[in-house]
């Protein structure tokens, strides 16, 4: 018979060599326990044993000093860098400015290079830290280190990574907000704005073509609007820096004369101290050739950018989308600032711009399009709904105003551009007049349009505008709204010529009555009336002579808008009105006695000494 498997297994087990089993114990009795003894060697780290000073700046979270935090900025790990930046932010925000200034240069030097970091969270932390630091120092204190920031910023604006380029715009916002005058001096940043939206062609050095970035987090149109918005702010800073020069001021200076005063200096022979320029290459002056060269690169890009967004004129007419509204505002503001800079450089700069780009602007911005309106809520029709909504929100945020379906602000800016370049069209003037009728508050753009109209020395247009304003001035609700516009015309145009065609003398005759009413009056109106009174305009002078008693009688109780009762600003305006005593032509003994009686009764309150001096001075002039 065949053997079964079990029998084979048993036979094999019997044949296998077996080890003998030991009956001895492994450990003696009583020693069957675990030995827990171990040896320890001390490790000493010197930095941990270092004592902190009482006045040493430490972060609130990890208690690290500035040097330790800056060492973390050089680490390869982005989380470690962000931890160091957050610690520096805590030190900057929680400590006094005087304690931070000693570390300011080292922090700026270490942080500036992180503008180019590949991590977006790190770059956002850099923006947050720089904003906190720049708000605590002056521009003069920042000037020695500003060149470092500008160099790294220029690299960020031309970086290959689209995220770095977009975040560089946030750094520009900080510089323009915290130190605009210092930023305006570094005009080397201007070409980098063009590099962000275009590239040079091989055919010509100044010729450029728009570029499209497919890797960007935002659409091309929104990104171009962001860049042009910062370019507009940069140009505005340049214009403002040219207007405000140190040591120069046209403001009136009030001198208090007492018994100890021996002389009043009319001018100073000493040279004012100018801020020290650390980089000799940086200069605030720019020649006409430099501005023209930059304009020749900029203008074609502006036109091409706008044409890409605006729909075909035959299909849409003047209706544009929300992104086009924001882009139109940026384009027009940039052009207006360029014209202002050209005017500052040379008187022939504006004429060159008008001859070179006047026809192009008229064809692309005005003909068949003006005035603009918002035709559809959303973006271009080939985009999906989600992206369309996102682009609209981004465009509205960049506009920094609520959406106006009639595009009033953009159309008024276009009217201002047309008046400055001499693009004559009755549509532009009619739009300005219509806007004046609808506007219930002072609009600076309308005021600038009237300045441009007056500067053209076109009497017919001045008469048309003046008649419209005079008709609106009869409305009590628009009296002080229209006043700045009329004042701007009267102060710059010959009143005799206007009086032949308009009733401007009737309006001048009513101005002193504003000073006798119990309703509050703006302080700007008081200053304007005093300026007109100094010009000795007959219509206004006769009205002042007939109302001077009522004006002085109402002076103590006169209410001035946005001024607290008996505050220094209110007393300053009232002292200005009291000077009308000196401008009275029909001065006689009866008027002098009435003022003397009011002075005895202390009718003028705290203004009594000032009015008494004017009264004595006027009597001396009358006796002579």
Automatic annotation (TrEMBL):
Localization per record: Nucleus
| Pfam assignment, any one | Ipi1_N
Give a yes or no for keyword Nucleus in this entry. Answer: yes
InterPro entries in UniProt: ARM-like (IPR011989), ARM-type_fold (IPR016024), Ipi1_N (IPR024679)
List UniProt keywords, sorted A-Z. Nucleus
Its domain of life? Eukaryota
What does UniProt give as GO cellular component?
Answer: MLL1 complex
Query: Which parts of the sequence belong to the Pre-rRNA-processing protein Ipi1 N-terminal domain?
Result: 140-235
Protein family per UniProt: Belongs to the IPI1/TEX10 family.
Listed name of the protein: Testis-expressed sequence 10 protein homolog
Main localisation: nucleus
């Amino acid at each position: 018979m065949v053997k079964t498997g079990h029998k084979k297994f048993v036979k094999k087990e019997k044949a296998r060599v077996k080890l003998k089993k030991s009956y001895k114990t492994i450990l003696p009795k009583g020693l069957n326990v675990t030995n827990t003894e171990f040896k320890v060697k001390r490790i000493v780290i010197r930095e941990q044993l270092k004592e902190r000073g009482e006045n040493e700046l430490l972060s609130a979270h990890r208690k690290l000093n500035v040097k330790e935090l800056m060492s973390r900025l050089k680490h390869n790990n982005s989380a470690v860098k962000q931890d160091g930046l957050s610690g520096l932010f805590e030190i900057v925000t929680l400590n006094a400015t005087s304690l931070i200034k000693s570390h300011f240069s080292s922090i700026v030097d270490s942080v500036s290079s992180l503008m180019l970091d590949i991590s977006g969270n790190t770059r956002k932390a850099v923006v947050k830290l720089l904003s906190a630091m720049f708000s605590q120092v002056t521009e003069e204190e920042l000037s020695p280190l500003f060149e470092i920031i500008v160099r790294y910023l220029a690299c960020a604006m031309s970086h290959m990574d689209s995220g770095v380029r977009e975040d560089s715009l946030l750094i520009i916002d900080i510089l323009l907000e915290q130190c605009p005058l210092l930023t305006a001096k570094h005009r080397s940043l201007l070409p980098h704005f063009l590099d962000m939206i275009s590239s040079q062609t091989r055919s010509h050095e100044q010729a450029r073509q728009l570029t499209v970035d497919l890797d960007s987090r935002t659409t091309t149109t929104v990104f171009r609007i962001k860049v042009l918005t910062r370019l507009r702010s940069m140009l505005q800073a340049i214009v403002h820096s040219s207007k405000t020069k140190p040591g120069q001021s046209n403001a009136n200076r009030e001198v208090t004369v007492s018994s100890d005063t021996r002389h009043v200096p009319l001018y100073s022979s000493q040279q004012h101290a100018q801020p020290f320029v650390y980089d000799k290459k940086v200069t605030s002056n720019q020649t006409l050739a430099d501005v023209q060269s930059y304009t020749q690169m900029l203008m074609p890009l502006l036109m091409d950018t706008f044409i890409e967004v605006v729909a075909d004129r035959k299909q849409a007419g003047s209706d544009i989308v929300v992104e086009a509204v924001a882009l139109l505002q940026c384009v027009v503001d940039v052009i207006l600032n360029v014209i202002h800079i050209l005017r500052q450089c040379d008187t022939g700069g504006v004429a060159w711009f008008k001859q070179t780009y006047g026809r192009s602007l008229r064809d692309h911005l005005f003909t068949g399009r003006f005035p603009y309106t918002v035709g559809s809520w959303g973006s271009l029709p080939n985009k999906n709904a989600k992206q369309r909504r996102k682009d609209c929100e981004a465009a509205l945020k960049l506009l920094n105003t609520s959406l106006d379906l009639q595009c009033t602000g953009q159309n008024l800016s276009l009217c201002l551009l047309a008046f400055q370049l001499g693009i004559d069209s009755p549509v532009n003037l009619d739009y300005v007049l219509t806007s004046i009728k609808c506007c219930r508050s002072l609009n600076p753009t309308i005021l600038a349009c009237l300045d441009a109209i007056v500067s053209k020395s076109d009497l017919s247009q001045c008469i048309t505008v003046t008649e419209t304003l005079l008709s609106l001035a009869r409305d009590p609700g628009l009296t002080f709204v229209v006043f700045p516009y009329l004042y701007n015309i009267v102060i710059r145009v010959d009143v005799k010529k206007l009086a032949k065609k308009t009733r401007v003398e009737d309006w001048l005759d009513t101005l002193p009555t504003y000073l006798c009413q119990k309703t509050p009056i703006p302080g700007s109106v008081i200053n304007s009336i005093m300026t007109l009174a100094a010009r000795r305009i007959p219509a206004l002078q006769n009205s002042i002579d007939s109302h001077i008693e009522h004006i002085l009688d109402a002076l103590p109780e006169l209410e001035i808008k946005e001024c607290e009762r008996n505050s220094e600003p209110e007393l300053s305006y009232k002292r200005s009105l009291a000077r009308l005593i000196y401008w009275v032509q029909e001065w006689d003994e009866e008027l002098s006695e009435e003022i003397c009686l009011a002075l005895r009764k202390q009718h003028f309150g705290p203004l009594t000494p000032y009015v008494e001096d004017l009264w004595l001075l006027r009597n001396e002039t009358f006796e002579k």
